[in-house]
Amino acid sequence: MKLYSNPASRGRIIEWYVREIGKDSEVEVINMDMKEKREHKSDWFKKVNPFGKLPALEDGDLKLFESGAIMLYIAEKYGQFNSPAERARAQQWALFANSTMANSVFVEQFRERSMPDVFGTLDALLAATPYIDGPAFTVSDVLVGAYLLYIPAFLPQVDLSPYPHVQAYMKRLAERPHCAATVAARAAEKKTETTAAQKA
């Protein structure tokens, strides 16, 4: 299985997940040059992802793009779902992370109106459970948690203090060794870049 990625892409999220389930030895991570060579725009890569975006996955004849779809496929492939209900809940959280939650915070025009409702509800849910889908860590935590961990790095002006359970959840995730080595590391890099740009 080949994962086409770049340290600055959402491929880091997938790397976090495959490490969590102990399958990183089965996934070959191919880091693409997005600046000088622009490999992601090459003709050969567009046969993997016709949109020329990273990350993308190749597993035999299967070619996938979009990080959420890739993680759900990996979870399915390696038996992480015990029932259709578990699978459906993971799909639910994937859509939530990439649409409802992402739009409420990363799209400035929606933030003031939508973020208090979305994050207030998420905070209440996390007050009752340590992880998104119950007491155990699952792919849903990677799907949602990665976006949360990127907020302070990409949007340092966004105040998360009204959501203490969300903040505690983010801290729990960032302290997981595989998260620390991938998504949390990228978030720290981006935060440093953002701070330097603001001072320049």
Automatic annotation (TrEMBL):
Source organism of this protein record: Chlamydomonas reinhardtii
Family that this chain belongs to: Belongs to the GST superfamily.
GO CC annotations, alphabetized: cytoplasm
Protein name per Swiss-Prot or TrEMBL: Glutathione S-transferase
Superkingdom of origin organism: Eukaryota
UniProt-listed GO biological process terms: glutathione metabolic process
PANTHER family according to UniProt: GLUTATHIONE S-TRANSFERASE GSTA, GLUTATHIONE S-TRANSFERASE-RELATED
Domain GST N-terminal: 1-82
Domain GST C-terminal: 74-194
GO MF: glutathione binding; glutathione transferase activity
